[in-house]
Give the backbone structure.
Amino acid sequence: MYNFLQRLSGVTSFAMSTLMALVVVIALTTPFIPSSPTFDMSLHNVQTTTGRAMDPYDRMSRKAEYARLTFDLDADLSTMFNWNTKLLFAYVTVDYTTPGFETNRAVIWDRIIKNKRQAKLKLRKHHNKYALRNYPLTFEDVEGANLTLHINPVPYLGIMYDKPVVSIPFTIPRPVKPAAGSA
Amino acid sequence: MDFLKPVFEGGRIDFAGQRLAANLSSAMVVGSATAALLAGLATEKLSLCFYTYICGVVLTFAVVLLPWPPYNRSPVVWLSRKAPASADNLSKSQKTLVEDVSDDSDSE
């Protein structure tokens, strides 16, 4: 500390270490900030049909059973925005169990919420954004399914985690075969 | 490169001043970190927290880095050349060696 450069070096390295400690303190205290979001989700309708993967009129592409569902969602997530929240990632999944595999999950809707104004969700009779199809191309062995809303807060400093909030059990029906067979 | 010599070798302060500068720099950096945390929590803005911290660190630089007069209040008092402790027993060549290597010529 006898020299200008010595003092510059010492104070700068201490300031960097203190900055790291400040960042760690912010990251560790973020999960304890209280938040009180409200959720309300309901399922309207589930329909299943057989369709083709790429082009409905291309008979060479494979056929699979696709389920389409409509849901309502009312949510107020604005209290989940604290000083360390960069964005909220909300997504709706369908989870079910099949005899061969314990966990099957398909994300059918998601949205990135960037500020408090966008955090008030009001969805009425929303279709699923992504296709709901089982890996063996049929819903034959699917016993029961759950429609679950998850929220992922993505912080500026710290660890992101998943928070499943609302879950609705339902069943996925099998597609109704038309009388005159042209599938 | 002689114009860099004041940068690399300048800014000397005495020992009491070094202790004061070291304690003051630690206290001011930690203080600006806590002030930054409180300012950010109060205004709910992460950017304000880090701007406050950077301003605090720049203020610490201004206070600690330059050789202000309070850091030079008690300079080291060297003994005069004519009163050595036990130089009577040293040979002439060793006495010359001891007297010539002191560098207090550029600390005045």
Chain B has four helices and no strands.
